[in-house]
Amino acid sequence: MSDPAFQRMSVEEYLRTEPDSPVKREYVNGFVYVVDNGDNLRGHAGSSKAHARIIFRIMQRVEPAAEDISCRAFSSEIRLKIEGRNSYYYPDVMVACGPDTNDPYSETSPCLLVEVLSRGTAHTDRHAKYEAYTALPTLQTYLIVAQDERRVYAYQRQGESWELAEYVGQGEIELPCLKVSLSLNEIYAGVLEG
Questions:
Q1: How many Cβ atoms are within 10 Å of 60's Cβ, its own excluded?
Q2: pLDDT tens figures, 31-54
């Protein structure tokens, strides 16, 4: 356990120690991983300005829409608890509808999840998180957003399967659970102009 980026731990210990941890950690089936902020500063606070601004721009669009339909929007400070997988993640943006949980730190029923890509998280966001997130019955949309180019991978639930649409440069992404769309211009305003 000398490597702080990878530790075996019980879920009870993770939940007990996470609020006081000096670094943000995700829990996946018995292992704790320090969240990489994308600047190869594993375990340190903060992220790139582009990463932070993209999250802010997405939140500017989804938070009012969520509030209008009695849903809840969160940026990366609230955990996603994936029941049945013994896992906790910190998505960059999460919208949850339905009854609120009694847990002040976690949500369990998102309809929208967003991850902003970085060098340190791209593989996990595209593979392990895709698998975990798309298994959630409430999830309707999973967006993977590039921060170094105007590109978004939008996974949309179509019945029992998932359909991928790639948006490059311009485009409008439908967010069915919020009954709004999100444009690449909105996502990248002040970061990467089109």
A1: 12
A2: 998 886 554 444 434 578 999 999
* pLDDT at residue 36 in the model: 62
Q: What does the pLDDT read at residue 34? A: 87
What are the phi and psi torsion angles at 64 (to 5°)? -65, -35
CB 125 within 8 A of CB 144: yes
Q: Is 24 exposed, middle or buried (0-12, 13-18, 19+ CB in 10 A)?
A: middle
- CA distances 130 to 16, 42, 124, 151, 155, Å, are 27, 21, 8, 17, 9
CA distance 25 to 33: 5
Q: Nearest to residue 91, comparing CAs of 56, 62, 129, 131? A: 129
φ and ψ of 52, to 5 deg: -65, -40
Rounded CA-CA distance 39/88 in Å is 22
- φ, ψ of residue 83 to 5 degrees: the values are -70, 145
pTM attached to this predicted model: 0.89
Q: Is the pLDDT of residue 2 over 50?
A: no
Confidence of residue 3 (pLDDT cuts 50, 70, 90): very low
